Design the sequence.
């Protein structure tokens, strides 16, 4: 049996993790949620996740720094950035630094599931991301 | 996967470089060949659309300012919809002025240098190099005026572009190679966010075109199927105009919600 996709989800707004974790659980991901970037980075140092989903604007450490840390430690891991302050320059900077995808808040869990599925495909671990029919929106 | 938008201070150069880039990349071409389709879709004369792309309204032309804006909005709406398909090289449709803040749309400006660019104009038009330079300068001044009037953007402002190449320094073969190489940069690759921005922009343009057919002075923004229309009206007309906008915009495919912001039109108020 294929192993589950290991996902680390980092956002300093607790509601994001609360809403997205169940949405990713439904498509068979093993999700660990963090609100503190330093704790998330410490966990990343211990474990190779398949996918890291991180907010960009956070106190103490921003999402771009998390991306760079992940790339240095685990080059195979796909990083997806989420932000409520999306701008073209930031999107280009993130893409230039090798982020797998970049998504602006608010979005539907389905949107994230679709991106997770394409990251899984790129990792050679395809999953079925068919919508389990929820309409929750991450703010 | 990306969009490459090419413009130049000389039309012939723009066409030559863009055509070669499309060939090199194996991308689709989006140029003035779509004008007949746009005209048929909006039931207008193709010649009027070309005229709108080339000229600004004046007392001496038959094209009124309102018609001009409507024709441009038809082109803009169609171009943006087609750009959703991705992997395209676009030129000759003023897309460099209205495809804004889309990270996977790379904007290129090719400057016709004296040695090769102007020589090409002189040869093709059978004029001297000096006359070719005058022609190019006149054309630039005309395009600056046009772009400011049409989209409030100065197309001769080089800071607007992602890449500027002078044919005086880089020959056409190397120019094509430079553009195709730069288009491979990860910065210009499509992502969920940039596709969403383009989808929103395309929907706003579609609604704008529908509204400009019957009214002037409207601005449209779209986000996830919700549309905000800003306009002006007298107190007496406010309610009717709001209802008309809601009805027209609501019929556009992809629109789920319409909000109308009406500012007082003081000119009509005092008339």
Sequence:
């Amino acid at each position: 049996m294929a192993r589950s996709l290991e996902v680390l989800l980092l956002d300093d707004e607790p509601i994001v993790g609360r809403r997205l974790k169940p949405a990713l659980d439904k498509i068979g991901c093993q999700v660990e949620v963090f609100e503190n970037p330093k704790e998330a980075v410490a966990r990343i140092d211990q474990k190779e996740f398949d996918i890291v989903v991180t907010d960009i604007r956070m106190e103490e450490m921003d999402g771009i720094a998390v991306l760079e840390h992940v790339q240095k430690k685990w080059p195979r891991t796909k990083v997806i950035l989420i932000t409520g302050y999306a701008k073209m320059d930031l999107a280009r900077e993130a893409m230039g630094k090798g982020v797998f995808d970049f998504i602006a808040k608010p979005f539907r869990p389905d949107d994230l599931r679709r991106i997770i599925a394409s990251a899984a495909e790129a990792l050679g671990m395809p999953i079925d991301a068919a919508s389990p029919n929820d309409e929750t929106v991450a703010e | 996967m990306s969009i490459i938008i090419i413009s130049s201070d000389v039309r012939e150069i723009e066409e030559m470089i863009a055509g070669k880039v499309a060939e090199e990349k194996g991308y689709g071409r989006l140029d003035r060949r779509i004008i007949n389709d746009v005209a048929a879709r909006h039931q207008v004369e193709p010649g009027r659309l070309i005229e709108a792309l080339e000229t600004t309204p004046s007392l001496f032309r038959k094209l009124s300012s309102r018609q001009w804006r409507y024709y441009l909005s038809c082109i803009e709406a169609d171009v943006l919809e087609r750009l959703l398909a991705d992997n395209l090289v676009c030129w000759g449709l003023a897309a460099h002025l209205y495809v804004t803040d889309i990270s996977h749309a790379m904007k290129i400006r090719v400057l016709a240098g004296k040695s090769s660019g102007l020589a090409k104009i002189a040869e093709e038009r059978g004029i001297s190099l000096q006359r070719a330079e005058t022609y190019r300068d006149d054309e630039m001044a005309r395009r600056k005026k046009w772009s400011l009037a049409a989209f409030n953007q100065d197309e001769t402002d080089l800071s607007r572009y992602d890449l500027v190449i002078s044919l005086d320094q880089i020959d056409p073969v190397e120019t094509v190679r430079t553009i195709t190489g730069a288009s491979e940069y990860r910065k210009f690759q499509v992502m969920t966010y940039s596709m969403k921005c383009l989808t929103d922009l395309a929907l706003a343009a579609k609604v704008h075109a529908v509204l400009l057919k019957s009214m002037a002075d409207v601005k449209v923004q779209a986000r996830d199927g919700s549309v905000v229309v800003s306009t002006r009206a007298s107190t007496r007309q406010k309610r009717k105009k709001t209802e008309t906008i809601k009805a027209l915009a609501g019929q556009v495919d992809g629109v789920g919600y319409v909000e109308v912001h009406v500012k007082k039109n003081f000119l009509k108020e005092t008339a």
Remarks:
- Strands of chain A lie at 5-10, 29-34, 51-55, 78-83, 101-104.
- The domain at 5-122 of chain A is CATH 3.40.50.2300 (Rossmann fold).
- Chain A has one domain: 5-122.
- Chain A has a mean pLDDT of 91.
